[in-house]
Amino acid sequence: MEDNKSFEELLNELDTIIRKLDDKDISLDESVSSYTKAIEISKRCNDILSQKIELVTKQMTEMGLTDFNKE
């Protein structure tokens, strides 16, 4: 999988895979392959989100704003 795809591109790719998996005519091998790819994309999306959350939290801290994740 390409590491330089944007979050939105990855979500679109994930959506395409989900639609494909919903197709009743897909073979078992193709289903497993698509599912595996979807998991990889999901992990990459999670990594991107984690990086963005870390960046925003750092910026908020530098500006003296409250971290709303802490109670």
Question: Could you list some keywords that capture this structure?
Answer:
single chain; 2 helices; mainly alpha; 71 residues
The average pLDDT value, as a whole number, equals 89
State the low-pLDDT regions, or none. Answer: none
Give the ordered list of helices and strands.
Answer: HH
Shape: elongated
Name the assembly state.
single chain
Q: Which percent range describes the beta-strand content?
A: under 5%
Structural class: mainly alpha
Work out the number of β strands: 0
**Proportion of residues in helical segments:** over 70%
* Total domains: 1
**Count of DSSP-assigned helices:** 2
Gyration radius, in Å: 17 Å
Amino-to-carboxy terminus distance: 38 Å
Biggest sheet features: none
How would you describe this protein?
The structure is a single chain. The protein has 71 residues and is mainly α. It has one domain (7-62). It is built from two helices and no strands. Helix 1 (7-22) packs antiparallel against helix 2 (28-62).
Give the topology, please.
Layout: H1 7-22, H2 28-62
Helix pairs in contact: 1-2
Short description:
This protein has helices at residues 7-22, 28-62. The protein has 71 residues and is mainly alpha-helical. Helix 1 (7-22) runs antiparallel to helix 2 (28-62).
